[in-house]
Amino acid sequence: MNFSHELIVPETGFPFKLFIFEGGGGNYYREKHWHRSIEIFAVCSGELEFHIDNRKWHLTPGNFMIVNSNEVHSVDSPLPNETIVLQIPLKLFEDYFTGEQFIWFSHEPGRRDERFMELIRELYGTYGRKACGYDLKMKSLFYQIMYLLVKDYRLMEVDDASVRKNKNLNKLSAITSYMKENYTGDLSLDEVARVFDYSPNYLSRMFRKYAGLTFKSYVQSIRLGYAVKDLDSGRYSITEVALRNGFSGSRALARAFQKKYGMLPSEYSSYVKEETHVLIQRRVRD
């Protein structure tokens, strides 16, 4: 299993990040991942399937899912949908922690679901219109949402195992953030263990237990993710893409790319060029 850590950056001028879910077109699957921020998926139309640990939730219009900090989850979007996503940095809840950097919200329906969805929709609508004073209204709506979260959805009693897992994923989040910032350089197990003052064996076990994969596989996953972005841009040769993203050369990139995506980088690059050409032709005709 491949669990990745996602780094979330708030909107400029606001203490949160707000956007429409990228899987709105359907035929989309977001692999298992986690992040320190609290994340809310509010389905306005269509449907989604959420997988958290060993449970599955089917969301329909009017439903929402609260994803807790460091909670490993995946999203399946086989059909078109419109889903608003609100991401809130964990530090905004620090006055309500029930343990060491810990707060936990229920996934089950609450008494105020209709009001909660109404606020989410109004928040996004205000963001889209950007009328005079919209920033003040957005902050007002956002803090009403925060109020409902801590009042109606916060769990006061959480088992010790969840607290321990959260604490270890907090440590792993710091490590994976460092790896994403330094993925082009030396990211050997020994070097990263030295930076964080762990033994290589301990760090290796941490990745296997809490990320569900080896340290080496995680490094390769990061590098492949950035390599795909470079191939999408069309600005670099395959060899340049490889060297820019920490691979020893084009052959190493090709092996890793083929294993994960089922095609060679050159095949993917040709596909991107073809899709871009078709899009340009459509715009010319329109």
From TrEMBL:
<dbReference type="InterPro" id="IPR009057">
    <property type="entry name" value="Homeodomain-like_sf"/>
</dbReference>
<protein>
    <submittedName>
        <fullName>AraC family transcriptional regulator</fullName>
    </submittedName>
</protein>
<dbReference type="InterPro" id="IPR014710">
    <property type="entry name" value="RmlC-like_jellyroll"/>
</dbReference>
<dbReference type="InterPro" id="IPR018062">
    <property type="entry name" value="HTH_AraC-typ_CS"/>
</dbReference>
<dbReference type="Pfam" id="PF12833">
    <property type="entry name" value="HTH_18"/>
</dbReference>
<dbReference type="Pfam" id="PF02311">
    <property type="entry name" value="AraC_binding"/>
</dbReference>
<dbReference type="InterPro" id="IPR003313">
    <property type="entry name" value="AraC-bd"/>
</dbReference>
<keyword id="KW-0804">Transcription</keyword>
<dbReference type="GO" id="GO:0003700">
    <property type="term" value="F:DNA-binding transcription factor activity"/>
</dbReference>
<keyword id="KW-0238">DNA-binding</keyword>
<keyword id="KW-0805">Transcription regulation</keyword>
<dbReference type="InterPro" id="IPR037923">
    <property type="entry name" value="HTH-like"/>
</dbReference>
<dbReference type="GO" id="GO:0043565">
    <property type="term" value="F:sequence-specific DNA binding"/>
</dbReference>
<dbReference type="InterPro" id="IPR018060">
    <property type="entry name" value="HTH_AraC"/>
</dbReference>
<feature type="domain" description="HTH araC/xylS-type">
    <location>
        <begin position="173"/>
        <end position="271"/>
    </location>
</feature>
